[in-house]
């Protein structure tokens, strides 16, 4: 009864062609005083209804005194209509704009599900996901600053993937600043700037531009892009920029263009912390079906910092080694792979010393980070802290974190080992031997 009344009202509000193509095919599968559930032939159809006719549907409900009812859409493939004979191609339906999107090649795994969220990237992830879902409560313009391999391209690819899968009618243009410049130069040379402006102003719902800093020193591109940005923001369209620099750090750009780049939310993706790196390595090892135990994952997370692309290189290299040798990954194989990819680590850290000592005393990294006070674990832990204090410039607090301890424990360990070296020749000789091996390995 509710849906019948709504359809009657909508038939008077909408053109006949739009009503027959978009409203008439909908089927009511459930209705009560709290819910109106409608079925459409596919996800695209339902998404189009939500984006273009939900306002009219809610207006009709309100006029009928039913504005408290929730409207929900489901997919029923049986509602699909066959295409006319001899017309196998998809037809453009009335009231639907031509969707001529520009989308650079997308990495199949760069999706929101594959993005590991931590403190270092939570704001950038949340803002990107919101814009992908057409939520502009945080603003319609987002600027993501991040170094190489920290995930800014992953997020823009994820936005594009989400839109293509959930709102394919969206007019999306995703390209690099260099590609945009090249396209504009071609338009100037071909005297087609009118079409260029039409594409990025009137036929664009969301604009994604990577590496916006490369537009520096190109005043004509800056002028045209500033005009496009103004046009899109005035109409509450969505824009995402990525760069390795903040707007203030980009040289050779016009001040008015710089102000456009700062008109929305600016967020930075920092290098991932240890926990986030562990999550990333764990996910990538599963993607490549490489069985890594917790100790190896933690070791890799402590060795590979900054550029996360190196993580993938290590995982791929390790997978190849294991396949060729027909062996399971172990610490020695991981170390060998790391040397080939990221080189020898000359900058000693407390983590590297801890891992080295774990191998020397045949204990695990988790043992040294545990609360255990057994002598077989406490002694190697104290030696690790002593050598970390001796051979690194890290603060006491950072050394302590490598062992899940605070700085006072480091101070105590250094004092204990120093006293034992002075009183016990056997321990002194052992420490000297370990120190020599450590220096040969790292220095």
Task: Describe the fold and architecture.
The structure is a single chain. With 443 residues, the chain is an alpha/beta fold. It folds into four domains: 2-79, 2-Layer Sandwich (GMP Synthetase, Chain A, domain 3), CATH 3.30.300.180; 103-269, 3-Layer(aba) Sandwich (Rossmann fold); 273-342, Helicase, Ruva Protein, domain 3 (Orthogonal Bundle), CATH 1.10.8.60; 344-443, DnaA protein, C-terminal DNA-binding domain (Chromosomal Replication Initiator Protein Dnaa, Chain: A). Helices cover 54% and strands 10% of the residues. The protein contains 19 helices and nine strands. It has helices at residues 2-13, 16-23, 43-63, 122-132, 152-166, 177-189, 193-202, 219-234, 255-261, 274-287, 294-303, 309-325, 331-342, 350-360, 365-369, 375-391, 396-402, 407-423, 425-442; strands spanning 27-31, 35-40, 70-75, 102-103, 141-146, 172-176, 206-210, 238-243, 265-269. The strands form two sheets. It has a six-stranded parallel sheet with strand order 4-6-7-8-5-9, with helices on both faces. Strands 1-2-3 form a three-stranded mixed sheet, with helices on one face. A hairpin with a 3-residue loop joins strand 1 and strand 2 (35-40). Helix 14 (350-360) packs antiparallel against helix 16. The longest helix has 21 residues, at 43-63.
């Amino acid at each position: 009864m509710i849906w019948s009344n709504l359809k009657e009202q909508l038939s008077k509000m909408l053109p006949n062609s739009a009503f027959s193509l978009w409203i008439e095919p909908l089927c009511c599968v459930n209705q009560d005083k709290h819910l109106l559930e409608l079925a459409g032939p596919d996800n695209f159809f339902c998404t189009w209804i939500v984006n273009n006719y939900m306002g009219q549907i809610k207006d009709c409900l309100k006029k009928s005194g039913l504005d408290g009812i929730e409207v929900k859409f489901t997919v029923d493939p049986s509602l699909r209509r066959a295409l006319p004979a001899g017309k196998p191609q998809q037809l453009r339906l009335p009231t639907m704009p031509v969707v001529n999107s520009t989308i650079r090649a997308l990495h199949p795994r760069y999706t929101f599900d594959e993005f590991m969220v931590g403190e270092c990237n939570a704001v950038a992830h949340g803002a990107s996901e919101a814009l992908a879902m057409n939520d502009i409560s945080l603003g319609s313009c987002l600027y993501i600053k991040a170094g190489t391999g920290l995930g800014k391209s992953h997020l823009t690819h994820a936005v594009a993937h989400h839109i293509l899968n959930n709102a394919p009618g969206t007019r999306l243009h995703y390209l690099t600043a260099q590609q945009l410049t090249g396209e504009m130069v071609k338009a100037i040379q071909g005297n087609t700037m009118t079409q260029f402006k039409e594409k990025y102003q009137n036929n664009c719902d969301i604009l994604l531009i990577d590496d916006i800093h490369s537009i520096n020193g190109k005043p004509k591109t800056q002028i045209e892009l500033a005009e496009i940005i103004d046009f899109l923001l005035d109409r509450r369209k969505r824009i995402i920029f990525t760069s390795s620099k903040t707007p203030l750090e980009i040289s050779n750009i016009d001040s008015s263009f710089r102000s456009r780049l700062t008109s929305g939310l600016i967020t930075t993706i920092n290098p991932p912390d240890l926990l986030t790196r562990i999550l990333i390595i764990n996910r990538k090892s599963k993607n490549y079906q490489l069985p890594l135990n917790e100790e190896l994952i933690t070791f890799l997370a402590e060795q590979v910092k900054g550029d996360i692309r190196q993580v993938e290189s290590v995982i791929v290299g390790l997978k190849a080694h294991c396949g060729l040798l027909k062996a399971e990954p172990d610490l020695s194989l991981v170390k060998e792979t790391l040397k080939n990819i990221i080189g020898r680590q000359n900058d000693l850290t407390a983590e590297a010393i801890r891992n080295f000592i774990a191998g020397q005393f045949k204990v695990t990294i988790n043992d040294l980070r545990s609360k255990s006070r057994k002598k077989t674990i406490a002694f190697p832990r104290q030696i690790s802290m002593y050598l970390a204090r001796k051979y690194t410039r890290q603060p006491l607090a950072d050394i302590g974190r490598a062992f899940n301890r605070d700085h006072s424990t480091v101070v105590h360990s250094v004092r204990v080992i120093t006293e034992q070296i002075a009183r016990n020749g056997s321990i002194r000789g052992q420490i000297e031997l370990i120190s020599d091996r450590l220096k040969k390995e790292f220095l």
